[in-house]
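Weekly modeling sync, notes
Attendees: S.R. (lead), two postdocs, one rotation student

Agenda item 3: backlog of single-chain predictions. S.R. asked that every request posted to the team notebook include the full sequence so nobody has to chase files. The rotation student volunteered to paste the first one in as an example of the format we agreed on. Action items at the bottom.

Example entry:
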Amino acid sequence: MKAAWGWHVARGLAAFVAGGLFSLGLVLAEMTNPVKVLNFLDVGGAWDPSLMVVLGVAVLTTGVGYRMILRRPGPLLAPHFALPKRTDVDRPLVLGAVCFGVGWGLAGYCPGPGLAALNMDNPEALWFAPALLVGLFSRRWVEQRRKAAGL
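Predicted structure, as returned to the notebook:
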């Protein structure tokens, strides 16, 4: 029993450190500033291409990281790798991507930066966080209705 408790503490600590590092990166890259993000998305106006550096580093880190980690026989703090099984593009995926993109374009926040901005005396984040929760619970509600209907 004691070993299982230690395992959970190690996983929780790893998640906490990873989340803290992710939050720090969002703040340093100014992704918690909706004006910066909206200017990045405004390619026809006051376009600010500086977030391309963030995107490029994220893609590079993910590409190299996945190649290195997936060579291992298994993860350090889990029984197996939890990789997606599906690769198809279906209607819920497309609709979700559209909703995400429209929300990001309107608010200047995606979930990570929006939650990180709660700590930064940003009143828009106080509106964003409850809306994010509504979206999360709506997804569960829709999924339950789809299962009940046999879809």
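Discussion: group reviewed the output briefly. The chain is about 70% helix and 0% strand.
Action items: rotation student to repeat for the remaining queue; S.R. to check formatting next week.
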